[in-house]
Design brief:
9% helix; 26% strand; mainly beta; globular; 6 helices; single chain
Length: 531
């Protein structure tokens, strides 16, 4: 929806006995009412009042007609200043951190409190029913809009993610109206329905330490307050193990939260809200059933703007990326080569407001879903859902066209990444149960086959096997090239490492490899990665 969309103008002149209802555009000057057309063509009388507009004047076009479905502008509307873009110099105006919802749009919105029946009337709001065909999504009278979080980070200079919404003093979450905004109840699309279902299950997280701070997103796992997010959100990318965490839910409540456990290997974490109840858990989908081209909806708090909704598709599956991470654990499973030119990855965490990438040589390798739904700094830990509003991924990283970012971050370029929900669910369940998660260990050093002289296929080249390890036990040898792991294609060392880490310690896996000119398959019982 564009910022200047309002109600559709009436298609015919109102009846003389019915008072005209002006369009609800608070920022623009109301259009002058058209002359009333007499019911009988034979009546030539013209009202004597001077302000009356002659019929001929009413019919004479003064400007090109607006396209169907849009109002004819009379004077330039005074829209609120734009939020800006990531990478834009200068700061957003502070007023927009918790701006009254609807203020930047033309028509007054019909709003209904969260949980209210879809048929609940909106007191004092006149709704103009446009003659448009309703979508199959049903009449959803709700799009939840929570206030953005404005955090403070003492000692942090410069602009964060291109803008700076932080005050010099310690900040605190700000709650605002939580309603569903539908300007035309007769034309609600599927995305609106998905948003109405999922937004109550997504929270905004503010983490602060004595020297830094930032915002991110999270997904509600249980009604009593277990929240799934990213490790880099709650540890400020490994900068602290005891950050102060505050969480704002979609209904405007603010909670303190404690870290239940982190999993830096897959950049996942679980936190628990203090004294929370009645939350709306997200519904998990099956990420293994996804197809390229499936619809995706990303929901989170980019730049602290809570409950932001973007749409796209699944751009690629079975993708693996390597990301620099200061929280990366020491690995006892060697991986040689990182699959990126000159050792620099174009991927990085979508750090939230106030966070800047930490310079580090450590990295993690994770399997991801690639989507073109806009994911921006602050979306980390938020939800990626399918067309049924079921969780298929936890948003984690974005790509940068300019390579690894050092001085700041750019926004979405249409290449975002989410951790598949199947992996996220296993890891979060283990953290809630045991305080930590386990990961598989192959017991082999690998490198990308394309980098090995003499190879003619892609895959993960086994450079060395660990004596007594899972790979050796399964019969794998130096020089074998792994081409698939549990049915997932392996094109380089990053793919194999990411898939092995996605599996639980002690789990069984099927490995397809090439030895010489023969393709073979073997069963492997994975060891356990020590962290």
């Amino acid at each position: 929806m564009s910022d200047n969309q309002g109600d559709r103008p009436a298609d015919q002149t109102p009846d003389a006995s019915t008072p005209g209802t002006p369009e609800s555009h608070p920022e623009s000057t109301p259009a002058a009412p058209a002359a009333v057309t007499p019911a009988a063509p034979a009546a030539p009388a013209v009202p004597p009042a001077p302000p009356t507009v002659p019929a001929a004047a009413a019919q004479a076009p003064q400007q090109p007609a607006a396209p169907a479905g849009y109002p004819v502008p009379q004077t330039p509307p005074t829209y609120a200043p734009p939020y800006g873009y990531v990478g834009q110099p200068g700061a957003y105006p502070q007023a927009y951190a918790g701006q009254h919802q609807g203020a930047a749009f033309g028509a007054a919105a019909q709003t209904v409190p969260v949980g209210a029946p879809a048929s609940a009337p909106a007191t004092g709001v006149t709704t103009t029913k446009a003659p448009r065909k309703s979508s199959g999504a049903g009449k959803v009278v709700g799009l939840i809009v929570a206030a953005a979080i404005v955090g403070g980070a003492a000692g942090l200079g410069g602009a964060y993610a291109g803008v700076n919404l932080f005050s010099p003093e310690g900040g605190s979450p700000a709650a605002g109206p939580t309603t569903v905004t539908v300007n035309d109840t007769g034309s609600v699309n599927q995305t609106t329905a998905i948003a109405a279902k999922v937004v109550p299950s997504v929270v905004t997280i503010e983490a602060t330490s004595s020297s830094s701070g930032g915002t991110g997103s999270g997904v509600v796992l249980t009604s009593d307050g277990y929240i799934l997010t990213n490790t880099h959100v709650v540890t400020l990318d490994g900068a602290t193990a005891d950050a102060t965490i505050r969480v704002t839910t979609a209904d405007g409540h603010v909670y303190d939260a404690k870290v239940v456990g982190t999993d830096p290997t897959y950049d996942l974490a679980v936190i628990k809200l203090v004294d929370a109840s009645g939350l709306t858990p997200v519904e998990f989908g099956d990420s293994s059933k996804l197809n390229v081209g499936d619809e995706t909806v990303a929901i989170g708090a980019p730049l602290g703007l809570s409950s932001s909704v973007t749409t796209g598709i699944v751009s690629a599956l079975n993708r693996s990326i390597e990301i620099a991470s200061s929280a990366a654990p020491n690995s006892s499973d060697g991986t040689q080569g990182n699959g990126q030119p000159n050792g620099q990855s174009p991927f990085y965490f979508d750090f939230g407001q106030g966070q800047t990438p930490t310079q580090t040589s450590d990295s993690i390798k994770i399997a991801v879903i690639q989507t073109d739904a806009a994911i921006n700094p602050g979306n980390s830990g938020g939800a990626l859902v399918n067309s049924d509003g079921k969780l298929i991924g936890i948003n984690v990283a974005i790509a940068s066209a300019g390579g690894s970012s050092s001085g700041g971050q750019s926004g979405s370029i249409g290449v975002g990444f989410s951790i598949p929900s199947d992996i996220a669910k296993r890891v979060s369940d283990e953290i809630i149960k045991d305080g930590k998660a386990t990961h598989g260990l192959l017991g082999a050093s690998v490198q990308s086959a394309a980098d090995v002289k003499g190879t003619t296929i892609t895959g993960a080249y086994i450079a060395e096997v660990v004596s007594g390890g899972a790979a050796e036990t399964a019969g794998l040898k130096k020089g074998d090239i792994v081409t698939a792991f549990n049915g997932v294609p392996i094109t380089d060392s990053v793919d194999l490492t990411a898939q092995v880490r996605a599996a639980a310690a002690g789990s069984d896996a099927k490995v397809t490899y090439v030895r010489g000119d023969k393709t073979q398959t073997t069963d492997v019982k994975l060891g356990e990665l020590t962290q």
